[in-house]
Design goal:
Blueprint (H helix, E strand, L loop, with lengths): L1 H23 L21 E7 L6 H9 L5 E8 L6 H11 L3 E5 L9 H12 L4 E6 L2 E3 L3 H12 L3 E5 L1 E2 L4 H18 L18 E5 H6 L12 H10 L5 E5 L4 E3 L5 H8 L11 H28 L7 H23 L8 H5 L5 H13 L4 E2 L2 E2 L4
Parallel strand pairs: 1-2, 1-4, 2-3, 6-9, 7-10
Antiparallel strand pairs: 4-8, 5-10, 6-8, 11-12
Amino acid sequence: MIDAVLGGLALVQGGTLAVLTARLAGGRTRRPPEMPRLEGLAEPRLTIVIACLNEAQRIGPCLRGVQAQGAPVREILVIDSGSTDGTRELVEAAVRQDPRIRLLTDPPLPSGWIGKAWALQYGLTQASHPWVLGLDADTEVEPGAAAAILHAAQRERFDVVSFSPRFDGQGAAERFVQPALLISLLYRTGAAGDPRVRPDRILANGQCFLARREVLLHHGGYEPVRESFAEDVSLVRHLATRGVAVGFLDGSRLYRVRSYANVGQMWREWGRSIDLKDAASRAQQWRDVLVVVCAQGLALPLAITLWACWPVLPASPVRDLLTGFTAAILGIRVLLQVALRGSYQRKGLSWWLSPLADPLAAVRMVLSSVRRPRRWRTRTYDAT
């Protein structure tokens, strides 16, 4: 009986290890982080679009960062969706300091649209220049970031490319939980930036999202993903299936992000899109849930159980095989933790212990997958 249970677990963990190895193999050849280009570029020209709604607590550093960008930034559009917390006043003050900044209000939200996708669509139509860089209001770009972003897109011949951030301002509890949630993305999509990844597994980050304006408009802008709470990933997968050159690069030296005020808000808001079900088929979604549950929900408890029961478990090849598979999965997890260290401004003990939070990430993944989000920022949407 014991051998049958161990054999079943070994089969599950062996399959999980095979999936993770195949998906993450491309990480060995990933590009190094992009670095700021302080000399700037004269051409081509670039429009920055910032969509915001009640971002008074975060918009200040974002505006200071974009104001510090020289060439090629020619236009900065702040698309406000009716803020009531003082966001507009902060932007108006920045307008008086920098003539490139324009404060716009998007038209009333149409039925069937998520607010951020609608604001970005409006910003896209109002942009005047060949490239459009979408930034979230919680980002703070470094001097020379815009030039580096544009240079990277031209170097790699991408029509659309997004960049991973450096996470900053996190408390100890956030540094414990958030890396485990982030790892769940890698387990499902594979190594970020791997050019061999299938279109339906491409990853993107809307916090820093560059696109050729004419290419995006030719494919409908954000309209094809108007109902998605993960509009960034949904959009690049939509474009990739249509032959558009899309990419994902390491932007951890180009900008920082402080998305959430505390671990509770992070737990709730990451659940909005961490599952990526808006960007995947239902079958793919639940296959990925199974991978995350086995890799993050099962591996650590299983390793602890094997260690505790080792003296009483009968020696057998099945036991040793299960132990080896489980150790290998945990080894991959530790290697990923080390590889991600450059993406965090602060680490500390809680960050290094975050593999212990992997079962929590698996729980969050399951909960997110069975629930349709209804609220984002201050807006509530139809559950259907």
